[in-house]
Amino acid sequence: MIERVSAADVEELQGAIESVLKPLSLEEIKKVHLKATNRWRVPISFDVRWRPFLNWTRGYHHPRELRLYFDLVLRVLRVAETWFKSVQSPRSGGRVFLDGRGIHCDGDILLGTLEWPAGVGVARLIGVRGAHHTW
Description:
This protein is α+β, with helices and mostly antiparallel strands. The chain has helices spanning 7-21, 26-31, 75-88, 122-126, and strands spanning 2-4, 42-46, 52-54, 68-69, 94-98, 102-105, 109-115.
């Protein structure tokens, strides 16, 4: 599967991430996992109702009130949900990773390829200043 991501999709996703983080203090933001391990991947979790949220903790997310849900339905995350459901059915929820190649699950299983606009990198997407890694 291949999906082209527009500049508008990138702006929408970046804006949604910034909106989720805006009410948090700098200390709280430092606890949010905006990249997976030492790789430049953005982890996105889905709850049992397939509502996407940012990762506050690794593994299961307890307490649930700490989940950082997206307020908007984002096209890139809808694609991630659709692709993830196609291999995870009948599972409810889980975690995917967005990177320069596409959308991954369960380690390094590539669900599908995302064609990002030229020059888009994880640093731009998640708003990390000083990071020079691009997808």
